[in-house]
């Protein structure tokens, strides 16, 4: 049985739009993942204290039969394939993929917290989730 998950995509290095597209494409290649909808793309200021370029962000809704931990593993593999280097927290990156929500699950492990703890503080994520929920409702 599949669950709907919301995955945030963002990056601020290189061809940001191309990285978002490559990440969306990478998700479609994962067995047990079906891309349901993609939000509008939005440019945002970077989080954290370091000076860096603005981010391009988007969120996708997927239907998945994977567990949250397995989905996270796939997301991190996609990030690595797209040149993501985890050198510094809040640092610049080619692509960042975060599980924002996974069905109605609540989870807190060292590797993953659901829903994502940043959801309440990131207005752009809230807008993107709302947009995706409307798209999913309209498709049903």
Provide the fold topology:
Blueprint lengths: L2 E9 L4 H13 L4 E6 L3 E3 L10 E10 L3 H14 L14 E7 L4 E2 L4 E2 L8 H17 L1
Antiparallel strand pairs: 1-4, 1-5, 2-4, 3-4, 6-7
Notes on the structure:
This protein is an alpha+beta fold and 140 residues long. It has one domain: 2-Layer Sandwich (Alpha-Beta Plaits). 31% of the residues lie in helices and 28% in strands. The protein contains three helices and seven strands, in the order βαβββαβββα. Strands 1, 2, 3, 4 and 5 form a five-stranded antiparallel β-sheet that branches. The longest helix is centred in the last third of the chain and has 17 residues, at 123-139. The radius of gyration is 14 Å and the shape is globular. The mean pLDDT is 94.
């Amino acid at each position: 049985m599949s669950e709907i998950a919301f995955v945030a995509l963002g990056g601020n290095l290189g061809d940001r739009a191309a990285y978002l597209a490559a990440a969306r494409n990478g998700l479609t290649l994962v067995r047990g993942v079906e891309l349901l909808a993609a939000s509008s793309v939005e440019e945002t200021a970077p989080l954290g204290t370091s000076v860096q370029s603005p981010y391009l962000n988007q969120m996708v809704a997927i239907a998945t039969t994977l567990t949250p931990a397995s989905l996270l593993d796939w997301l991190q593999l996609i990030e690595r394939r797209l040149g993501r280097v985890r050198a510094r927290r809040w640092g610049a990156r080619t692509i960042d993929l975060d599980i924002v929500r996974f069905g109605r699950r609540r989870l807190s492990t060292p590797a993953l917290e659901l829903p994502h703890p940043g959801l309440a503080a990131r207005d752009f994520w809230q807008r993107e989730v709302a947009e995706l929920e409307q798209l999913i409702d309209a498709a049903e």
